[in-house]
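REQUEST FORM: STRUCTURE PREDICTION
Request ID: SP-0412
Submitted by: Lab K.M.
Chain count: 1
Length (residues): 308
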Amino acid sequence: MAQRLPTASSLTPYVPRVALRWEAEGGGLWREVDGSLVFVDISGFTALSERLARRGRLGAEELTGTLSACFGELLSVAYEAGGSLLKFGGDALLLLFGGEDHATRACASALRMRETMARVGRVTTSVGNVRLRMSIGVHSGVPFGDYRYTGGLGTSVLDVPLVVALAWVMMAHPAITVADRLTHGWRRVALAVLALAAWDVFLDPQMVDAHHWRWADPSPHLPGVPMVPLTNFAGWLLVSLVLMTLLHGAARRERSRNDGPAVVLWVWTWLSSTLANLVFFHRPAVAGWGFIAMGLVGVPLLLRSRRS
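STATUS: Completed
RESULT:
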């Protein structure tokens, strides 16, 4: 008797929805997408499976039913937020969120799944009551966010344009010099980190407008600056911390008497960037946020200079 092969429709429940959609769009073995991944791990099923295993086939069926009911509730939450199931891993799930605001929807879905687990995680079985818990992780391009360079900035090293690295090194000396005018020791490092990273509030919106790089999902963001996510600024704070710590360790010396040009360069960058964004680039929000960010160091610097 000839064996009957399964039809495509009968296999649909066992194939990720995103794979079915890609197949309908033309197939392909792989595809690069902008999205956020959510990993969900349920704790408590291992102990339950060991207890139900003593009941043989009936225990296995009960475990399958319990697992399906729990995952069914969680997947309903993910599907409502536009998520796609990529794979099961025993008592774990891997979900993909794509499209607009995917990072926001992934995080919101993760929170709703935790609330759902608190509701459905108390399970009554033939071997007693069980409390299921959930661990969850979300990834969406950290620390700078999910972004792409457009290739217009020349030579790159490790996928980063060389001119970007040189620009940050160029501004590092003025930033730490400005901080040195105000304080010393490790407080100098903290102030220098702010003096350098705050410049990025001006720089990144300008580079995005010039089409040098872009973010797949620039949210959450500063009000009025929708093109750059807050995670990017957090990332540059981290880079600034590393850079300024190295400079602090390499240059434990008294402030040079010839630091005037570096201070003037930093102040000119602050004030001219504010004016340019306000008058010429027509980005008042960028002008305002950048002025405030660099002004946290710039205003005390000008007051100190005026007194002296």
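NOTES: The radius of gyration is 27 Å.
Reviewed by: T.R.
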